[in-house]
Design goal:
This protein has 162 residues and is mostly helical. It has five helices and no strands. Helix 2 packs antiparallel against helix 3. The relative contact order is 0.17.
Length: 162
């Protein structure tokens, strides 16, 4: 008696489809977890005060500006020739402007991150319900595809399983 069954393309296709639906279901669940993490991070960002978010930028910028002022005072006290003092003042001015520009960019980044977090929290319910819809649909199609795998089993496998 031949123990080997012939290739059953319908069963193979059903198994492949079931694996795809299983991957879709896992992806939808993982996406849901990721969205919950994003919502938690956005809520934590909004819960902190704007000063707490901007504190480091303000302190670093202030420290750098104080350092520029000290360096300028040192250069003035060193009795440098007029040409060197002009160069030192130009460098100090350029560094101070760069520090202020970087501070403005960093503070604008804090503001935009808070705005993005606010938008994310506002759209929380819609995003999660959409993902829940995908989870539900994926679960249904996965179950249906598993039933199709069972229904398309070769006859010899179905007889042995019963």
């Amino acid at each position: 008696m031949n123990q080997h069954t012939s290739y059953d393309r319908a069963h193979d296709d059903a198994q492949r489809l079931a694996r795809r639906h299983e991957r879709d279901l896992h992806w939808a669940k993982e996406r849901r977890r990721q969205q919950e993490k994003e919502i938690a991070a956005a809520s934590a960002l909004l819960a902190s005060t704007p000063w707490a978010l901007a504190r480091r930028t303000v302190l670093v910028s202030g420290s750098l500006l104080v350092a520029v002022a000290v360096a300028t005072a040192f250069a003035t006290g060193a009795r440098l020739p007029a040409g060197w003092l002009l160069l030192a003042d130009a460098v100090a001015t350029a560094v101070a402007v760069a520090v202020l520009l970087c501070a403005v960019v960093a503070l604008a980044g804090v503001r935009s991150r808070r705005a993005a977090a606010r938008d994310l929290v506002r759209s929380h319910d819609a995003r999660l319900s959409h993902t829940q819809y995908h989870i539900s649909e994926s679960a249904h199609t996965f179950v249906d595809s598993r039933v199709e795998v069972v229904n398309t089993r070769p006859a010899s496998v179905a007889r042995n399983a019963a």
